[in-house]
């Protein structure tokens, strides 16, 4: 379950690595069913559309659903993450985003690590993100767009925008690149967006500049994003920490399961 | 300059046909320069951004700039259009759209012919559109998205939305497909968007269902769209006709130039 040297080099060079069809169709079905189940658990971790009941995102499902508890420990995923980062990692954030038809997040171009440094006092960019496609991702349903190699230049900006509207809430626009910065970055790095069938997994750097297309299709598109953090790099929030469903408190190092999550049961951590 | 039988069949089957790099780099430069020049001609045919000076679109440049007068008569373009439609065609509408960075038209899914029937009393879908790429078109800078084959099912809806806000102005939302209609159409036809280098030309049907992605890139993207209409199918507006720069009044049949527009001068029709 280790990445080849070439794969690891590609991750470090480009800032992301695509593992196409890492999970099989049956596993995808299992994960979708667990998502539907988890979206019905009442609580602030379920984000609905403004004024609607349609579920837009669910946080921290790995703390409630054994399929996701298993997935974040699956050797096909956790082993590569440890290889790229270090042996002792835990899940810092876990989110499943259902991008609605004809819409989706604004496409502010940003670097994740800046957001986490500001919001949670995360000391260093010692994270690896994984994106797990729960639906096919095409050019039409809102793929993430990366600027390959942009992570190697560190943070483009140091803090949030002076025009930030709220001290509490971190708006993507507060940390986005300016049009001039982005023009220079795109000229130099180009744009690319990993696409592939459901079950594919993309690993990506917390410092890679990325944006998000709207979903032009008439169908929702579900994407899981989990962030692993080095246990030696715990957040140090200055004020009130963000809620537990957003910033996970269980920082014990994860150990890989002996086999894929679909073959071994995994208890949900209490 | 005729299309092959296979190309013509593809157009009729799928509702569009891509002619990659039909124009060469020098011709593209010539057309860009003519656009920049034409965008400085004062008048209502130049559409600027709300409250800004940035040019978003220019209409009817073929009536003022000899390069575009030549292009619409260029045998590489006019001959295929006549082959697909009929011998006697004229330019019904001509528009160059500069899709701004990080934005662009809303992506209402629609059929052109419905708009023209409502706005101009156009009797039948006896048109061929051409899209001329003045910049490279990629998945990131707002390509048009087609539902291949959808034109063969005729108009999805008969009139404008009951909630239309204005009798005068035709909002794309007034003629767009409902989410349910679009889901059925996408399921059946799929989505595709022709991309290619500047100088490519795409021919497409007035009845094909299409939408438009936003431009995620930091650079504007210029696209010329001209619509040829059968001279036996002239508009019959019920009220005041739309302005001449939107709906061209010169309905004399066009004759192909003897050679590409870059090789023979073409006077601007007065």
UniProtKB/TrEMBL annotation, chains A, B:
Listed name of the protein: Phytanoyl-CoA dioxygenase
Highest taxon above the source species: Bacteria
Oxidoreductase found in the keyword field: yes
Gene Ontology molecular function: 2-oxoglutarate-dependent dioxygenase activity; iron ion binding
InterPro entries from the UniProt entry: Phytyl_CoA_dOase-like
Keywords, ordered alphabetically: Dioxygenase, Oxidoreductase
Keyword Oxidoreductase: yes
């Amino acid at each position: 379950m280790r990445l080849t040297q070439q794969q690891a080099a590609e991750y470090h060079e480009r800032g992301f690595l695509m593992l196409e069809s890492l999970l099989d169709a049956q596993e995808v079905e299992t994960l979708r069913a667990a998502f539907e189940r988890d979206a019905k658990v009442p609580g602030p971790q379920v984000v609905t559309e403004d004024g609607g009941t349609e579920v837009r995102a669910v946080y921290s499902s790995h703390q409630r659903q054994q399929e996701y508890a298993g997935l974040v420990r699956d050797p096909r995923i956790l082993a590569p993450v440890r290889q790229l980062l270090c042996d002792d990692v835990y899940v810092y954030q876990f989110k499943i985003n259902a991008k609605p038809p004809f819409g989706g997040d604004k496409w502010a171009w940003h670097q994740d690590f800046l957001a986490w440094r500001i919001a949670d006092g995360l000391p260093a960019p010692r994270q690896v993100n994984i994106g797990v496609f729960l639906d096919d991702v095409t050019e039409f349903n809102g793929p993430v767009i990366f600027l390959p190699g942009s992570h190697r230049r560190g943070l483009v900006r140091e803090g949030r925008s002076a025009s930030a509207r709220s001290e509490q809430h971190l708006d993507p626009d507060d940390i986005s690149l300016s049009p001039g910065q982005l023009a220079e970055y795109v000229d130099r790095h180009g744009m690319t967006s990993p696409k592939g069938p459901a079950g594919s997994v993309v690993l990506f750097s917390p410092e890679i500049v990325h944006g998000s297309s709207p979903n032009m299709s008439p169908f929702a598109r579900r994407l899981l994003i989990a962030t692993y953090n080095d246990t030696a790099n715990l957040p140090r929030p200055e004020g009130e920490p963000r809620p537990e469903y957003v910033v996970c408190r269980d920082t014990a190092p994860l150990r890989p399961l002996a086999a894929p999550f679909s073959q071994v049961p995994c208890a949900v951590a209490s």
